[in-house]
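Weekly structure sync, notes
Attendees: PL (lead), two postdocs, one rotation student
Agenda item 3: pending single-chain targets
PL asked that the sequence for the first pending target be pasted directly into the notes so everyone works from the same version. It is reproduced below exactly as submitted, 104 residues in total.
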Amino acid sequence: MKQVLGGLTARDAEDMYAAIRLAQPGGLGTTAEMDVAGSAPQDLLEAMRAAADRDMVARQYAEGFAHVLRSVAPWIAEGCAAGWSLTEAVIHTQLRLLAAYPTV
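Predicted structure, written out during the meeting:
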C-alpha cells in the first residue's frame, strides 16, 4: 500500500480534487490550506495529512489505509463468514464505523 500511495502524482491530486468537487460532498467547509475548492497541491498525501483530523477518508490516505486493513476488511469478512450477504456485511460494517466514529 505504501508503494502505491508513494507513487501518487500531481495529476492524481488534480484528479482527486476534481472528483471531490464533482461529488459535491456536504460538510467540507473551507480551509486556509489545500482547500478542495482551490488548486490541487503537488502532493496528494500532504493534502490528506492536512485534512486527516477532520476527514476519515483523508485519514485513511494519511495512515496508509491501516484502519481499513485492520478493522474494516475483517468486519466485512466476519459478516460473510456468519452467512450474511456481502451487502449485509458492508451495511453492518458501516454501522459499526458510525458507532465508533460518530463525528468524523
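Discussion points:
- The chain has two domains: 2-64, 67-100.
- The helical segments are 2-6, 10-23, 44-51, 56-62, 66-81, 86-100.
Action: rotation student to compare against the earlier draft before next sync.
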